[in-house]
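User: DNA-binding response regulator, Streptomyces gougerotii:
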Amino acid sequence: MSLKVVVAEDAALMREGLVGVLTRFGHQVCAAVGDAEALMAAARAHRPDLVLTDIRMPPGLGDDGLRAAVALRRDRPELPVLVLSQYLEQSYATHLLDLGGQSGVGYLLKDRVAAVTEFADAVAQVAGGGTVLDPEVVRQLLRRRQDPLGRLTPREREVLALMAEGRSNAAIARSLYVSVAAVNKHIGSILQRLDLPVDGDAHRRVLAVLAYLRN
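Assistant: Predicted structure for DNA-binding response regulator:
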């Protein structure tokens, strides 16, 4: 099956290599771009059958590619998206799997694609509505599910440990030499990352401490 594909990759050699592989397998690359803004424009102009994108790219050199993919899926929930990244980030993988019911999505690590045919098969599977994940991505996601505290940053773990000691936000701020506003922000992030129900801040705080003590 021939597909119309938009490719987004900021490394020129990698981008041209992807175009060559896709063309070799009979696909039409309707645009090959090097930044997230160009990806958005190309995908909306060409309405491709698949978007193939890196995560980290200009203009911000952060998760611009992933955020562009999320925006495109918001416009077209059925649009298949395959991420080909050098980095394994659990938060990126989770965010990607939240796109449109987990259908038509893929996350492959560049250095772990063993063969061109393996890559071509992944393109076909994602375009057909399947989900393709690198085995290492699956292992990381399972590990994260088993240990909810794995979702927290080191600083958030410090804040949660002090919460478990029964310290107030002001006391935590003094201990960590940060502002109370910064502590409030960390606690909000902790509650969100642990997927705690919204039953009142006090109750959620207790649940967060219990999660810490269990681990």
